[in-house]
């Protein structure tokens, strides 16, 4: 059974707080075991690329999801609680990490090098699969294996609905070979609905004249029947033999060519193909900058779903990132696309400079399609590679990927850490667990990029990473939150997107860290982080923050000391800026508890002076190029800043002060350079 990964039927609970990833893993395991016990082998496919002919539809969907995310944050800020199913949003990074989750469960996983639906249908046809379990109507159009509904699937009984391709053809009076033309005239990802509207309108007018009594059905059904009659009437022997678009269709030359491409997208290997010139796979975007061995390994790892980010850079020259749970009204926190941009530039540099100094290599920019507030997605961001900073020359990619020996291992680690400007952390390698080293690297990078990140935010990140390893899944499931904080939601999503960048950097540098340590089910739980965030900002003592565990407390203090030291070397001093969380107006919910005390403080609200107000949105190239200087000026105004410290105030923060103090006021909030 072939399963499009986008149709995976397991939900991540509490997605809006970053996801309970261990529970998600158990859910996936249950689904896999249900099929395995019935003797059904699953094969998963993931979208590896977004073809440019479908970019318009991709952008349209991203904009729609942006609206849904805005509603989600408005609900959280108004009610302080998880919204219902009508506002359910998948956690950031789900598609990225699910492929690795399934591989860890022993499943066969592929990542496409062209349109995933095409590769799925082609695989199912060539291997005689029992079916495709999905929810895309295109699988009915392909002349491939039967299509089963994942939405109607009942996992306990393994029953669902099968969409019968032959029965459909009998009902609408067409052959299977005519379905691609029908799909394109009705509108799909290649041929948008508006392009063929005049064809459909004419077909509907003719259908109503010829069938005056057949107007009682749903409008969509009538349209399908009308266009089906049109296809049947214009389809002759020539079209059947050659697959050409009927000449009798009233189409301009560009629309006819577009329709040809749309129909061709449904023709699988072995079927008659419309002649469209050279349709062979394009060569690598940067093949002259890397060896053939690197390109071969890159493609193999991509197809086997073992790599991340590298194939998109070397072979496509384009990278995209879907929606992230970010509050577009929060002008204090930068979008993750901008936070991690310097890291991506260094990843691009490591891959493309390939041992050469940056000044001696002229590289084209990488096209980035990243969704964030202020980006209209009318065109990609053009992002230039930046060489990584090492004491010696730029590392050669072939050595990093294929070399052996302790010196190569050390070079891999230093290259990896340099992409996050954390080279000093290499001394902790082997002294702390790899997952904690990765967490410290990520938190340090975020702190260096976001000047408004407070000591409390960093404490929440680090305490979550330390405590997670000792938590059972049952304990994680039973974490109760008194309310949700929109800022904590965004910080959780920011962290998970950071894990993806850790993964990309790890793949680019030859894998100095085990990939499993970078997975969210090994290093992050959304509810646990949210609880730590509320505790940290309410003034809980470190012993409470670390679950009163001496070993966890010792590790936490060690990591925090290294974080503080690394930041200080770069002129970044972390400050205590408690946000004093407060439950939003709404019905009381007294039965929820975090285990961190009862006196939650009043929350201040940040207003004005944000990153967009300073012209840092994508639309202003002049200010984008000088973002680093702009952010170093500092600033940000606050109002309503009242904070009542927790009775057990943190001794490490109050030493020498006797009480908590508010952070200073700024005219503009500081923010990172990019």
From TrEMBL:
Instruction: Give the coiled coil ranges.
Output: none
- Could you tell me the superkingdom of the organism this chain comes from? Eukaryota
In what ranges is there compositional bias, type Basic residues? 645-658
Q: Where is this region: Disordered?
A: 570-674
Cross-referenced Gene3D superfamilies: 5'-nuclease
Database matches in InterPro entries: Coact_PPARg, PIN-like_dom_sf
Spell out the GO cellular component terms annotated for this protein, sorted alphabetically and separated by semicolons.
Answer: nucleus
User: Basic and acidic residues composition bias: which ranges?
Assistant: 589-632
UniProt family annotation? Belongs to the constitutive coactivator of PPAR-gamma family.
Protein name, per record: Constitutive coactivator of peroxisome proliferator-activated receptor gamma
Q: Which organism is it from?
A: Champsocephalus esox
Q: What is this organism's lineage?
A: Eukaryota, Metazoa, Chordata, Craniata, Vertebrata
């Amino acid at each position: 059974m072939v399963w499009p990964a986008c149709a995976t039927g397991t939900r991540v609970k509490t997605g809006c707080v970053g996801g309970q990833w261990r529970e998600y893993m158990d859910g996936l395991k249950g689904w896999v075991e249900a099929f395995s016990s019935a003797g059904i082998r699953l094969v998963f496919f993931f979208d590896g690329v977004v073809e440019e002919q479908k970019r318009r539809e991709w952008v349209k969907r991203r904009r729609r999801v942006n609206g849904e995310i805005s509603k989600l944050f408005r609900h959280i800020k108004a009610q302080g609680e998880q919204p219902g199913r009508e506002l359910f949003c998948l956690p950031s990074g789900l598609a990225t990490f699910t492929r690795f989750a399934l591989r860890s469960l022993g499943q066969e996983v592929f990542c496409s090098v062209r349109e995933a639906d095409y590769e799925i249908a082609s695989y199912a046809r060539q291997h005689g699969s029992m079916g495709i379990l999905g929810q895309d109507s295109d699988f009915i159009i392909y002349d491939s294996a039967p299509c089963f509904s994942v939405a109607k699937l009942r996992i306990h009984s393994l029953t669902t609905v099968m969409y019968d391709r032959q029965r459909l053809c009998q009902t609408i009076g067409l052959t299977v070979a005519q379905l691609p033309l029908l799909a394109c005239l009705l509108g799909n990802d290649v041929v948008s609905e508006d392009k063929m509207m005049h064809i459909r309108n004419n077909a509907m007018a003719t259908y109503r004249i010829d069938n005056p009594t057949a107007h009682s059905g749903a409008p969509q059904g009538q349209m399908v029947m009308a266009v089906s009659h049109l296809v049947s009437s214009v389809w002759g022997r020539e079209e059947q033999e050659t697959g050409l678009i009927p000449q009798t269709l009233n189409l301009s030359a560009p629309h006819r060519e577009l329709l040809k491409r749309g129909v061709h997208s449904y023709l699988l290997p072995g079927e008659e193909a419309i002649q469209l010139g050279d349709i062979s796979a394009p060569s690598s975007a940067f093949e002259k900058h890397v060896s053939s061995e690197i390109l071969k390994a890159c493609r193999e790892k991509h197809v086997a779903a073992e790599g991340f980010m590298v194939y998109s850079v070397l072979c496509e020259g384009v990278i995209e990132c879907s929606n992230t749970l970010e509050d577009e009204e929060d002008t204090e926190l930068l979008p993750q696309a901008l936070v991690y941009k310097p890291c991506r530039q260094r990843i691009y540099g490591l891959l493309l400079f390939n041992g050469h100094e940056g000044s001696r290599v002229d590289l084209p920019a990488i096209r980035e399609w990243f969704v964030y507030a202020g980006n209209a997605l009318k065109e990609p961001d053009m992002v230039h590679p930046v060489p990584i900073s090492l004491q010696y020359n730029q590392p050669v990619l072939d050595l990093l990927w294929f070399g052996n020996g302790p010196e190569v291992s050390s070079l891999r680690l230093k290259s990896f850490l340099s992409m996050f400007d954390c080279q000093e952390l290499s001394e902790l390698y082997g002294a702390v667990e790899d997952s904690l080293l990765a967490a410290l690297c990520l938190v340090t990078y975020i702190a260096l990029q976001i000047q408004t990140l407070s000591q409390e935010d960093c404490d929440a990140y680090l305490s979550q990473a330390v405590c997670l390893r000792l938590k059972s899944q049952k304990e994680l499931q039973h974490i109760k939150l008194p309310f949700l904080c929109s800022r904590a939601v965004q910080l959780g999503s920011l962290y998970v997107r950071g894990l993806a960048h850790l993964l990309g950097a790890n793949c680019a540098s030859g894998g100095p860290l085990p990939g499993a340590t970078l997975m969210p089910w090994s290093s992050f739980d959304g509810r646990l982080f949210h609880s730590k965030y509320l505790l940290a900002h309410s003034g809980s003592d470190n012993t409470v923050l670390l679950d009163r565990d001496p070993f966890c407390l010792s590790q936490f203090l060690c990591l925090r000391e290294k974080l503080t030291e690394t930041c200080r070397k770069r002129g970044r001093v972390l400050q205590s800026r408690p946000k004093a969380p407060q439950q939003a107006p709404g019905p009381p919910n007294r039965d929820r508890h975090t285990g961190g005390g009862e006196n939650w403080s009043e929350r201040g609200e940040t207003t004005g002076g944000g990153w967009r107000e300073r012209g840092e949105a994508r639309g202003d190239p002049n200010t984008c190029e000088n973002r680093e200087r702009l952010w170093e000026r500092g600033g940000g105004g606050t109002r309503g800043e009242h904070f009542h410290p927790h009775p057990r105030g943190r001794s490490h923060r109050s030493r020498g002060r006797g009480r908590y103090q508010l952070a200073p006021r700024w005219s503009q909030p500081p923010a990172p350079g990019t």
